[in-house]
Amino acid sequence: MPDRGSINLFDHSTIDLEVLKKRAYNLRWATVPGGVIPLTAADPDFPCAPEITEEISRFIKDRYFSYGPPEGMLEFRESMAKYFQEKRNISVSPGLIFPVDSAAYGIYLTCKAFLSAGEEAIIFDPVDFLFRYSIESVGGVAVPFPIPAGDTPDFERLDQLITIKTRLICLCNPLNPTGKVFTKNELLKLADIAFRHDLTILSDEIWSDIVYTPNVFTSIASLNEEIRRRTVTITGFSKSYGLAGLRIGAVMASNKAHYKKLMDASLHYSTIHGANVVSQIAATAALDKCGYWLSGFLAHLHNIRGKCVDGLNAIPGFKCIAPEGCYVAFVNIEGTHKTSSEIQELLMNDAKVAVVPGLAEWFGDGATGHIRISFATSDEMIGEALSKIKSTMLNHTKTVAVNMGMNV
């Protein structure tokens, strides 16, 4: 067998657009008109590592799909514990980890377990809408803490947002959509606020594998034992390994009391909820056998990030700061004098490129004047999309100038 680490798994030729057009939903290939390049939902265009499908094949050949243990398969929990120990410097028992049907459900579950109606949770702004959605779905109140792209968090302002009703601080690290990776010093300041106000920390770390040098990811639960004991850590496999459709994530509790609270809220013991056993097999294979694939993917993303950011900054009215983590570019389009919805519509209709507008319903008020672009695709695909976007924006600028009677 050839060394799979030496094969370019992220060449344009590995992308099967015919399959993607049938299977890639959530604003992507299966939902956009033909001829449109969707740089929308953060989901890779590349097929997953072959070891994942090989393990699934081995598991399913016996043709038994029985109930799994409500707390999750032992091999999955052991692999997760090893991951947290070796990759995140957190010593944890497999008995404090359990699988969920997505990291998104892990966020919702934590809000359900730790918030009562009318209680408050701090969320970042901008941030993925799932935080606000989860909080409000359980009757809580989401309180936004602004962290504009490129800015250092104002922790004094965060401290002032805390009230007697605050129960949670929701940390998204790395931060979607800006790509910020929090420094150790910043995490210590956040943890100090949690201590002083006796708050639980929800740490969403689904993007933690996608970090670009020289930036370094630090899991907040790794800082010290006191911080760990008040932190619930959530991760998943959609961003790092392309397994969004398998809907598998993990929740790591910090102590037995938190674990019980989370498991009771999960409804896993009732079989109303639970993680797919096949998905647990896939995730375990990803952790145990696919490190080479993740390393290759990250190297590819590191290279394409530079091309994407440089290309975006060469477009009239666009301004983009290179993300420290994640594979999304958060583009300031205020220089175009158009709204994010207007830019999205213009690019969809004229450039045939789909992007995500910076609307409050997606990312909060802090996303105003921005669009988000995913670059988890091939060099050729990004190059084509950027060329179309630039051509469209140049033509638009000329048209506006002519209509205003200006010389171009």
Description:
With 408 residues, the protein is α/β, with parallel strands linked by helices. The chain is 41% helix and 14% strand. It is built from 15 helices and 13 strands. The protein has helices at 17-23, 50-60, 74-88, 103-114, 130-137, 155-161, 184-196, 225-228, 238-241, 256-266, 277-289, 291-313, 340-351, 360-363, 379-403; strands spanning 37-38, 97-100, 120-125, 141-146, 166-172, 200-204, 231-236, 249-252, 319-320, 328-332, 353-354, 356-357, 370-374. The protein has a seven-stranded mixed beta sheet, sandwiched between helices. The protein has a four-stranded antiparallel beta sheet with strand order 9-10-13-12. The chain has a two-stranded parallel ribbon with strand order 1-11. Helix 2 crosses helix 11 and helix 12 packs parallel to helix 15 (379-403). The chain is globular and about 70 Å long. The protein starts with 16 loop residues before the first helix and ends in a 5-residue tail after the last helix. The model has no long low-confidence stretch (mean pLDDT 95).
Please summarize what this structure is.
The protein is an alpha/beta fold and 408 residues long. Helix content is 41%, strand content 14%.
Across the major sheet, the strand order is: 2-8-7-6-5-3-4
N-to-C terminal Cα separation, in Å? Answer: 60 Å
**Rounded Rg:** 22 Å
Number of helices: 15
The largest pleated sheet is described as: 7 strands, mixed
Shape call? globular
Mean pLDDT: 95
Determine the fraction of residues in helical runs and give it as a percent range.
Answer: 40-55%
Oligomer: single chain
Stretches where pLDDT is under 50 for at least 5 consecutive residues are none
Q: What series of H and E elements makes up the topology?
A: HEHHEHEHEHEHEHEHEHHHEEHEEHEH
Strand content: 5-15%
Q: What is the structural class? A: alpha/beta
Please provide the count of β strands. 13
